[in-house]
């Protein structure tokens, strides 16, 4: 009788132990998911806008020549340029969401979020950039 | 007889409560670790990769300066590749704040990006980034999660 009740106690204890682990994990995951959902409702706070421009728009503007390595190191810029220059894109511009860190890094590298932002050139095509804040 | 049992029972009850408390603490810690591991697994399975970026600052200002050692580079090969390896691709000092430039960037895993953030990210109380000093230059390490 005694060993039976202590065995039951051990079983209940183990169940409670596992339940607490699962409960804590569930609460943390739900909280994380909710935070992501709430902050992600309007998308990331910045959008990188890239627009194809003609050579006539290059007067008095600095031009930065992009390399393949630049695009590899800046996936956001790469996808914006790819989208803007794709043949199916009639308006020849694209806006891509980016995080605050990516915005900072692109600003320090290519001045995307500065007054008189430079024009970027890749593969013979010129791109003007700007940043939209939500 | 009844009175003689009481101190033993009390001790047993106290021991049980302490054991339950300790088990509870361990269970909570394990739950947090499980959630962390699941989050990391979900990110790793998403197919996207975070980026490690290193920026160079002209002067350290009043930030904490931490010297980078060979051990840092051994522990974080991505940092090594960006600061002095094949991923070094410095931009001009011209844009942005003017006293800062990008040194380079590379793909890292989520686990590695977290390890880099823990090691070289901002202090948890001050939220100020330390400046990492290597051969007279000052660096900031940031990571971008997609």
Shape of chain B: elongated
Rg calc of chain A: 26 Å
Summing up helix and strand content along with how strands pair, one would put the structural category of chain A as: alpha+beta
Elements of chain B, N to C (H/E): HEEHHEHEE
- Largest interface: pair, residues per side: A-B, 34 and 35 residues
Q: What is the straight-line distance between the termini of chain A?
A: 68 Å
Helicity range of the residues of chain B?
40-55%
- Residue-averaged pLDDT of chain B, rounded? 86
The coarse overall form of chain A would be rod-shaped
Counting copies of identical and different chains, the oligomeric state is heterodimer
Count of helix runs of chain B: 4
Total discrete domains of chain B: 2
- Biggest beta sheet summary of chain A: 5 strands, mixed
Strand content of chain B: 15-25%
What is the helical fraction of chain A, as a range of percent?
A: 40-55%
**Compute the gyration radius of chain B: what is it?**
24 Å
Task: Output the structural class of chain B.
Answer: alpha+beta
The number of distinct structural domains of chain A comes to 2
Low-confidence stretches of chain B: none
Spell out the key features of this protein.
heterodimer; A: 134 residues; alpha+beta; 2 domains; 5-stranded mixed sheet; rod-shaped; B: 146 residues; 4 helices
Summarize the entry for a quick read.
Chain A has helices at residues 2-40, 68-73, 75-85, 100-110; strands at residues 46-53, 63-65, 93-98, 119-122, 125-133. By secondary structure, chain A is α+β, with helices and mostly antiparallel strands.
Model description:
The complex is a heterodimer of chains A (134) and B (146). With 134 residues, chain A is an alpha+beta fold. The relative contact order of chain A is 0.19. In chain A, a hairpin with a 2-residue loop joins β4 and β5 (125-133). Chain A has four helices and five strands; from the N terminus they run αββααβαββ. Chain A has two domains: 1-41; 46-133, no CATH class. The longest helix of chain A has 39 residues, at 2-40. The N and C termini of chain A lie far apart (68 Å). Chain A is rod-shaped. Chain A has a five-stranded mixed β-sheet with strand order 2-4-5-1-3. By secondary structure, chain B is α+β, with helices and mostly antiparallel strands. Chain B folds into two domains: 1-47; 51-144, no CATH class. Chain B contains four helices and five strands, in the order αββααβαββ. Chain B has helices spanning 2-45, 70-75, 77-84, 110-120, and strands spanning 51-57, 65-67, 100-107, 131-134, 137-144. A five-stranded mixed β-sheet of chain B has the order 2-4-5-1-3. Chain B is elongated and about 80 Å long. The relative contact order of chain B is 0.19. The model of chain B has no long low-confidence stretch (mean pLDDT 86). Classes of the chains: A alpha+beta (134), B alpha+beta (146). The A-B interface holds A 13, 16-18, 20-26, 28-29, 32, 62, 67, 69-70, 73-75, 99, 101-102, 104-105, 107-111, 113-114, 118 and B 20, 23-24, 26-28, 30-32, 34-36, 38-39, 51, 53, 55, 87, 89, 91, 94-97, 100-102, 104-106, 142-146.
